[in-house]
Amino acid sequence: MSILKVKNLNIVDIKTGRVIVKNASFSVQEHACLGIVGESGSGKSITVREILGVNPRWIQSAGEIIFEGRNLLDENEKLRKSVRGKKISMILQDAMTAFNPIEKIGLQMRQTFMQLLKASKKEAEQMSLAGLKKMNFADPRKVYKSYPHELSGGMLQRCMIAIALVLQPSIIIADEPTTALDSINQLEVVKQFQYLKELSGTTLILISHDLGVVQRLADNVIVMKDGEIVEDGAAAAVFNEPKHPYTQYLVETRLQLSNSYTNSLQNGGEQEHDYSRAP
Ligand SMILES: Nc1ncnc2c1ncn2[C@@H]1O[C@H](COP(=O)(O)OP(=O)(O)OP(=O)(O)O)[C@@H](O)[C@H]1O
């Protein structure tokens, strides 16, 4: 069953008149992961930002984004704000900028749960610690009491996934969640996403230039090029029998590269990962 439907979405920069996304249509299946791949600048991020309603004012769109029976594009900011975070959450590429550098992680997690879930301070603390524990931190309380700069990029990314795990939104959008990480942390974050999918049956929209990551997580895939969806289908079909020449090119060049790299890491590097690095 589809949980979100995008129909004939056109996104225009009204300052320049440029059409950035052209007639994009796709649907997101409940409890599944939709991977969005494509070259840089093809319109992946701007599309998911339009779903959340966080593009700047000069970015205008036409078409439909149907969620819970409503076309979000017709709704006012109040309604869209009530969807953001609680029903559709976004995990960003750079976890460091997502957290306030001068506040401890625990305080920021707590505030999120107090605001979005109307939890008490005590409840919010328990939720935070439970979320961190599920993200495989050796010492969740120590992470809770840390400032962002005291944690690695991978750990911060796992804190963001922990927040999503607690909020249990209907959809989590992850925009290049592994790009800023080193390879060991990338593998760890992918594993946490797998866990999130299996544990809570979350619906995931995953943007990644790393086809290996998409292959591991996605059930369905759309391929974007120059603002258009050039291919759309089950992940196995898209990766094994790519139809569009651009997808064939992506699979030939990027997937093999990504997989041989990941395999070499899994065979050699994974045991080097030391959880005692958790503060
Ligand atoms: N706020 C904005 N104002 C004007 N143009 C924008 C804005 N954000 C993105 N664009 C333009 O829209 C196009 C698509 O950008 P988008 O960020 O969606 O690409 P992408 O496919 O996510 O690429 P990447 O993999 O590099 O993140 C680009 O040409 C970009 O310059």
TrEMBL record:
Family from the record: Belongs to the ABC transporter superfamily.
InterPro entries per record: AAA+_ATPase, ABC_Ni/Peptide_Import, ABC_transporter-like_ATP-bd, P-loop_NTPase
UniProt keywords, alphabetically: ATP-binding, Cell membrane, Membrane, Nucleotide-binding, Transport
GO MF terms held by the record: ATP binding; ATP hydrolysis activity
Nucleotide-binding keyword on record: yes
Membrane topology annotation: Peripheral membrane protein
Domain of life: Bacteria
Name of the protein in its database record: ABC transporter ATP-binding protein
Source organism: Paenibacillus montaniterrae
Biological classification of the source: Bacteria, Bacillati, Bacillota, Bacilli, Bacillales
Cellular location(s): Cell membrane
Residue intervals of the ABC transporter domain: 4-251
GO cellular component, one term: plasma membrane
